[in-house]
Amino acid sequence: DARGAVEARSRSQLSERQRMMQKMPENSLTPSVLGVLILDSEGNRIIAKYYKGYMAGQAEQTKFEQKLFKKTKNNTATRSDADVIIFDSQIVIFRCGADTRFYIIGGEDENEIILDTVLAGLFTALNTLLRGQLESRNLLDNLETVMLAVDELVDGGIILEIDPQNIVNRVLMRSDDTAQPITDMSVSQAIATAKDQLFKSMGTRDSDTAWG
Is the pTM higher than 0.85? Predict the structure, then answer.
């Protein structure tokens, strides 16, 4: 089906990116991320996280997001492809969902392939967690799950995990060895598990998350 085809393409592309990353010099494997954004079809924020002091103020963030959406809203990138632009002197990798746009922001000297791999990991993990339903309404209805996935992807600007299945397993509070397949877990179970993990993570992590 369409969802399965998207997941297959995403995983194939992610595997190729990971192989390319392994061939890079060691000093290129310590990148950082300045921001992770998901905006709806009108440019409104679904979730936004900024790191390392980038876009520290709310007004600055809102202005940046509006300008970024205006710059990318007419792009025709499909759900299986990502695009890259230089915006506000930073590298921005973005990808379209059903009526959403996913963005990873990196410094001007960051490696585009690595940033693209980060985006692919997040997109594929959320596509699995939300059963292919990446519409803005469903993302908002499952905001806790989305937030947890971002937290498992990047923390304080440091890339923690890019493998989508590992992100899924961690969001669902499962280890890789004992994970219950998500297909065997009901939606209500998955959401309840994600909510419980959210409350725990809020107590142990510094929160620099802003969402609409």
Answer: no
